[in-house]
Amino acid sequence: MLVFKGFKDLNKHLNHVRNQDPNLIIGLVPTMGALHQGHLSLVRQCNKDCDLTICSIFVNPTQFNKQNDLTNYPKPIAQDISLLIQAQCDVLLLPDVQEVYPESYVHQTFDIKNIDNIIEGKSRVGHFQGVCNVIYRFFSEITPHKAYFGQKDFQQTVVIKKLVALVGLRVDIVVCPIVRENNGLAMSSRNIRLSRGGKQEAKCIYEALCILKKHYKKLGISNSIGLAKKHILATKGTEIDYLVVVNTSNLAIAKEQNRNEMIALVVVNFEGIRLLDNLILS
Ligand code: AMP
């Protein structure tokens, strides 16, 4: 696996391989590191679909709205490199903040039709504009054919699709399924900060989503949300930030069943960590 710290060196390499094969399909897997099987599933999918897989590791400061969350974000880089080699990633891009946001860079505000200000964006003001800026930088510098994101951050996938349409970038956005622990807990880089017991107890989140999915047709959406919330709150120390059912296309709140595809989105604060999960209902 080749490792590049700057876009210039990466592009020199990409131009070289493109010259050898003009039809080469390049895929990008953007991450913030502390890799787990969820991230690696994106790398593997990218390997299947593309000729060259680039994984980026960059802890993007502009998408954190709490300084201590940024400072405490895990950075096990040696372990990440060995996991990427095992997953047969071709290229790792490891830029620093100066490289991604040089002094001349003007932070942009993208008009993504309010999708950035609702649900997760309401709890984390400015988060999605930070995501848009970093993804815009990566897409414009690297110009991949395809980019891979996890359904785990469902709202992020909607935001990125809107961003790509807005700025007219030609990149295919591929959304991959959520990879879970054996007990159902969605894998996340932040899970390593959970206690051993906490990791077991946090399974209540996925269980609650399954309860909601099982009952919403018979009991209606709001009653099933009530059941799901009750299930989560039965685990001591949980605090629900939000648990909503929305239409997958525009994230509009679905109060009752409708013909659109719907998804339940949840964030639970537990042991000082934000645990995010979701489940497609129909
Ligand atoms: P992050 O490093 O948290 O920014 O995540 C990088 C990418 O990995 C994002 O597209 C996430 O949605 C995706 N991802 C994170 N956790 C999982 C998971 N458990 N299953 C699938 N994809 C995931």
Q: What percent strand?
A: 15-25%
Average pLDDT number? 97
Low-confidence regions = none
Q: Gap between N and C termini, in Å?
A: 40 Å
Q: Per the principal axes of the C-alpha atoms, what is the gross shape?
A: globular
- Return the structural class: alpha/beta
- The strands making up the biggest β-sheet line up spatially as 1-4-3-2-5-6
Helix content: 40-55%
H and E string: EHEHEHHEHHHEHEHHHEEE
Based on CA atoms alone, the radius of gyration comes out at 19 Å
- What's the story with the biggest beta sheet? 6 strands, parallel
Q: Could you tell me the number of beta strands?
A: 9
List cofactors, ions and other ligands. Answer: adenosine monophosphate
Tally of alpha and pi helices = 11
Write a structural description:
This protein is of the alpha/beta class and 282 residues long. It contains eleven helices and nine strands. It has helices spanning 7-20, 37-49, 67-71, 77-86, 97-100, 120-123, 127-142, 154-167, 196-201, 204-219, 221-233; strands at 2-4, 26-31, 52-57, 91-93, 146-150, 172-176, 239-247, 262-270, 273-280. The strands form two sheets. A six-stranded parallel β-sheet has the order 1-4-3-2-5-6, with helices on both faces. The protein has a three-stranded antiparallel β-sheet with strand order 7-8-9, covered by helices on one side. Helix 7 (127-142) packs across helix 8 (154-167) and helix 10 (204-219) packs antiparallel against helix 11 (221-233). It starts with a strand and ends with a strand. The mean pLDDT is 97. Bound molecules: adenosine monophosphate. Residues 31-32, 38-39, 41-42, 149-150, 152-153, 176, 178-179, 186-189 line the site of adenosine monophosphate (AMP).
